[in-house]
Amino acid sequence: MTRIRSILFTAVYYIVSVLYVLLAALFLVLPGRKAVGWIVRRYARRMVQALWLFAGIKLKVVGREKVPAACIIAAKHHSWFDGFCVYSQFDDMAFVTGDHLEKIPLLSTVLKKLGAIVVDSCGGRDARDRLQIHAAKANEEGRRILIYPEGHLAVAGERFRYKSGVYHMYKNFGLPVVPQATNLGVFAPQQGVAKYPGTATIQFLDPIPPGLPKAEFMARLEAAIEGQSDILIAAARRQPVEPSKLVPDPMTFGQAMQQLS
């Protein structure tokens, strides 16, 4: 049953993604990013809903009230769907993403319209400079900025070295940084199509105030994100799964698709 639902969700993911990218493309000619931003936020929310309807993964958000209007959100990156879960929570948020997304037809134009901060996935000096330039613009516009400080998807329970780009943004902009932990990778792993039902959590932690030296900031950020993610992962792996609660209510495929419209 889990495999069938995982395949079904994957099919729905691609269908809905293509539809929303095409819809966003129709509004690219309008000035500003308001219309395209609204469509992309709606898309993100539909993906979160699809995770629940088709894969049985319900999202729980903790600490939303800790995120100020102007800040940097530094998040753990376990799953391809992390971005949907966070982006669905806020209006007009800028985000840092790898340049691999630019290779998808139309998507690169949509990302540019959104003011997304696209950097070279391989890193390097050029990537750091590009990050600072585009992040500075987002900061001037008063937008929250989402960044994954590891720069890579990590298997739940594992980590990569935290990169210094988040510190330079923190130092240059004088903004608080909100660490964000998650256990989504337990339910929607970064590899393969398998999805496992349960309640996934994203948790916003206490903001780190501006002004800390680099070593102290980086240590505090990593300890907060990794420590709380480990706690959430351990709790997720102990979750009992009740077959009767894998979806909110029994429904046909057509009814479920209507929920996403």
Structure commentary:
By secondary structure, this protein is of the alpha/beta class. It has a single domain, classed as Glycerol-3-phosphate (1)-acyltransferase (3-Layer(aba) Sandwich). It contains nine helices and seven strands. A seven-stranded mixed beta sheet has the order 1-7-6-2-5-3-4, with helices on both faces. Strand 3, helix 4 and strand 4 form a beta-alpha-beta unit. Helix 1 runs antiparallel to helix 2. The protein is globular and about 50 Å long.
Keywords summarizing the entry:
261 residues; alpha/beta; Glycerol-3-phosphate (1)-acyltransferase; seven-stranded mixed β-sheet
Fraction of residues in β-strands? 5-15%
Could you name the CATH class? Answer: Alpha Beta
| Extended strand count | 7
Number of domains: 1
- With helices defined by DSSP (H or I, 4 residues minimum), what is the helix count? 9
Radius of gyration: 18 Å
Largest sheet: 7 strands, mixed
Could you say which overall geometry the principal axes of the C-alpha atoms support? globular
**How much is the average pLDDT?**
83
Overall structural class, as computed from helix and strand content, comes to: alpha/beta
Which topology does CATH recognise?
Glycerol-3-phosphate (1)-acyltransferase
Please identify, by name, the CATH architecture: 3-Layer(aba) Sandwich
Brief digest:
With 261 residues, the protein is an alpha/beta fold.
Architecture blueprint of SSEs:
Elements: H1 2-26, H2 34-55, E1 57-62, E2 72-75, H3 82-87, E3 94-98, H4 107-114, E4 117-119, H5 125-140, E5 145-147, H6 165-173, E6 177-182, H7 184-187, E7 198-204, H8 214-237, H9 253-260
Parallel strand pairs: 1-7, 2-5, 2-6, 3-4, 3-5
Antiparallel strand pairs: 6-7
